[in-house]
Specification:
Layout (H helix, E strand, L loop, with lengths): L1 H15 L6 H4 L2 E12 L2 E5 L1 H6 L4 E5 L4 E6 L11 E7 L2 E5 L8 E8 L2 E7 L5 E9 L5
Antiparallel strand pairs: 1-2, 1-3, 1-9, 3-4, 4-5, 5-6, 6-7, 7-8, 8-9
Length: 142
């Protein structure tokens, strides 16, 4: 009897632990940028939540469970200016945002989850940071 109770506790813990959840299952939802870094020439610029409010900038990306995405951005980053919607796919720790009409405008980010936040990184061919953003998942109204 005690063994069954202990086994149930372990099973519940395994099902509730974030690190055991597959990235594909964690991505769906609306993610709102609250901090980001961009490399402008020789300088790495850092923008925090207060800066986003001050400059009235926003960046949201919604990953739908049917592997479609919607992207809305008012930040001035060339990287995301040509893609607003399309399909997404995950391979290991990379998420690809696939442009529906022009594959060359597709973007691949390295991503990770940390304390419930989504971190997305894009580097150029030389290894410079084009974009590193930290997103918070929007709570559903239901």
């Amino acid at each position: 009897m005690a063994a069954k109770s202990f086994l149930l506790k372990i099973t519940d813990w395994l099902q509730s632990t974030e690190m055991f959840e597959r990235p594909r299952k964690k991505l769906p939802g609306k993610w709102i940028l609250f901090e980001y870094f961009v490399d402008k020439g020789e300088e790495l610029l850092h923008f925090q939540e207060d800066d986003l409010k001050k400059y009235q900038e926003s960046f949201t990306i919604e990953f739908e469970s049917d592997e479609q995405f919607l992207l809305e951005s008012t930040i001035s980053i060339k990287l995301v200016q040509n893609i607003k919607h399309g399909s997404w796919s995950v391979s290991r720790n990379f998420v690809s945002l696939i442009h529906p009409e022009n594959f060359r405008d597709s973007i691949e980010f390295q991503f990770a989850f940390d304390r419930g936040n989504l971190k997305m990184l894009k580097k150029d061919a030389a290894g410079k940071i084009e974009f590193f953003g930290i997103f918070r998942k929007q709570k559903s109204d239901t």
